[in-house]
Amino acid sequence: MSRHWAIALPSESIDPTHAASPRKGEADLEALTATAWPQVGRVNPQRMVELTAEVRTIIQAARRAAQGNAFDDEPSRFAAVLRSLAESPGSEDR
Amino acid sequence: MTELLNIDLCEAARRIRTGETSSEALTRLALARARAVQPLVNCFISIDEKQAMDDARAADAALARGEPLGALHGVPLAHKDMIYRAGHITTGGSTLLAQHRPRITATVAQRLQEAGAIWLGGLHMAEFAANPIGQNASYGDCRNAWDHHRISGGSSSGSAVAVALRACYGSLGSDTGGSIRLPAALNGIVGLRPTYGRVSRYGILPRTWSLDTIGPMARTARDCARLLGVIAGADPRDCTASTLPVPDYESQLTGEIAGLRVAVPVNYFYDDTTPEMRAGLAHSLDSLIDLGARVVEVTVLNADLLYQLGNLISQVEAAAIHANLVKEGGDAYPLVLKTRMQSGAYVPAVDYIGALSARARLVEAFTAEVFGCADVLHLPVIGRTAPSFDEIVPSSSSDVFPLLARTARCTRPFSTLGMPALAVPAGFTSQGLPIAFQLVGRPFAEGTLLQVADAYQRVSDWHLRSP
Q1: Do B242 and A82 touch (CB under 8 A)?
Q2: What is d(CA B358, CA B404) in angstroms, rounded to the nearest whole number?
Q3: Neighbour tally for B432: CB within 10 Å
Q4: Using the beta-carbon criterion (under 8 Å), do A78 and B359 form an inter-chain contact?
Q5: pLDDT digits (tens, 9 = 90+) for B92-128
Q6: Do B467 and B273 meet the contact criterion of CB atoms below 8 Å apart?
Q7: B176, B157 in Cβ contact below 8 A?
Q8: Cα(B211)–Cα(B318) distance, rounded to whole angstroms?
Q9: Which residues of B are catalytic?
Q10: Do B363 and A82 touch (CB under 8 A)?
């Protein structure tokens, strides 16, 4: 397959066309990532800038939606919450 | 096709146990059926005839000796080709792993064996379980059981198609963003994504650590209850496996759902649904109402955000898991997968942790909002029937990702929340393609979902129809 695939943004639906040069930090990130993802040279760096921006938008929305979560929940609390919800009133499978 | 292939998993187990038939007879029939359908739909990656027949004869001999029998004794099953058994090739749907012989055995494989199940072979799957459409450049596409010109859905493609075509009595699949529910829906079978942590993932080829689940796919809710009862439970080798006791799921299948509250979403989930699918879902709701259920309308908050969060987590973790495979695989690693996963490598660690951190409060809020007023949520699995292969050929990359997003828009939000969700056959379109509804429950309420689906299957016959 020789088609040049665009990189998938988190929403899997955005088609950015902006033009700008990556800043130094972004270039460093690109070089770092290329060690694991060798085809990185085929990706428009600007898409990475947009990816980062969109990710930030998603996370900020998640923080707002998660009742003010300011990243103070350790990720492993998720499993504990699932269990507590199973054991709360209304659960059929206790 | 013989009548013996049309019986369901629980009936097959009963007949073997009572001596009405033998494991050898059923295994021989299933293998013949697998050979017959394979050229038509490509649902198997490997078929292990000798091992299966040897195991079936051993199962019959154990029965004759009066040995204790497991819940699946002698029943021929086949599974998504990502479940490790020490020494057996497990491809993950990719030729990059064509010689991959794991040195460990998955906990679920061990439990199936202890329950007496026969393992017919490895079933087709989208490469690395990474595609809800089910395409596979390594082994060719698996075709829909009801129309061979259409997609099977993925990534548990072969599991759904083999069960629908009666080439096995049940199967295990995996579900990260919809990979059990979508192919189950598109091929007219039942598929359960259990609560995150209900089933051990030890010895399963990972797609993501935070979202992967292993679950049953079969023709009936009762069959799925039987399979789940065998594979669920704590596992010292998987710290994410919950220590909550495993209920007797089959005992909950009473056929009674009077008074049960069924929530129906008024936003998001029907936005991309065809009129024919809407009609099918409405008809299934009418059946539940006739059984005594009460319907309440709910607004599901943050559905699109939950989709995007799950996608973000999935991309990051897949990028980490596959980094070496991409490097070593070179051009053999599918470019479309590489492209999707690569974006995960660019997500800042702070934001990835933020996504994981938000989940606990999101699932609390969701549960309070929806399950404060209902016992189950009823909604589409997918808004349309299986597209033809011609329809999914992308003209550009910008066509691909929206297609993937549309496919999983009703399934991925519940993956993000770790909730159990069940796909249930609910009819056919005018073109003869399956329609399905999805039931979502509060964490660890698999029994409730199966109870509702079983009650529905007692008053419907969609699951009895065969392609």
Answers
A1: yes
A2: 24
A3: 11
A4: yes
A5: 999 999 999 999 999 999 999 999 999 999 999 999 9
A6: no
A7: no
A8: 11
A9: 80, 155, 179
A10: yes
Q: Nearest-CA neighbor of B238 among B55, B394, B106? A: B106
Q: Which of A67, A85, A93 sits opposite B446 (nearest CB)?
A: A93
Q: How far apart are CA B295 and CA B264, in angstroms?
A: 7
Cα distance between residue B354 and residue B144, in whole Å: 39
Q: List CB contacts (< 8 A) between B445 and chain A.
A: 86, 91-93
Query: Which of B190, B205, B194 lies closest to B160, judged by CA?
Result: B190
Per-residue CA distances from B48 to B35, B90, B126 (Å): 11, 12, 20
DSSP secondary structure letter of residue B81: T
| Rounded-to-integer distance, Cα B347 and Cα B359, Å | 17
Interface test mutation site (partner B, options A3, A12, A81, max chain B beta carbons within 10 A): A12
Partners of B436 in the beta sheet? B425
- ipTM field: 0.93
How many Å lie between the alpha carbon of A19 and the closest alpha carbon of chain B?
A: 18
Please state, in angstroms and rounded to a whole number, the distance separating the CA atoms of residues A45 and A19. Answer: 9
Question: Which tokens is B160 given?
Answer: 């759904």
- β-pair type (B421-428, B376-380): unpaired
| Beta strand segments in B307-466, E | 376-380, 421-428, 434-441
Distances (CA, A) of B47 to B35, B79, B89, B230, B420: 9, 11, 11, 23, 31
Residues 6+ positions from B196 with CB-CB distance below 8 Å: A78, A79, A82, B210, B211, B213, B240, B418
Q: What single DSSP character describes residue B295?
A: E
Q: How many residues does chain A have?
A: 94
Give the tens place of pLDDT for each residue, B238-275. Answer: 999 999 999 999 999 999 999 999 999 999 999 989 99
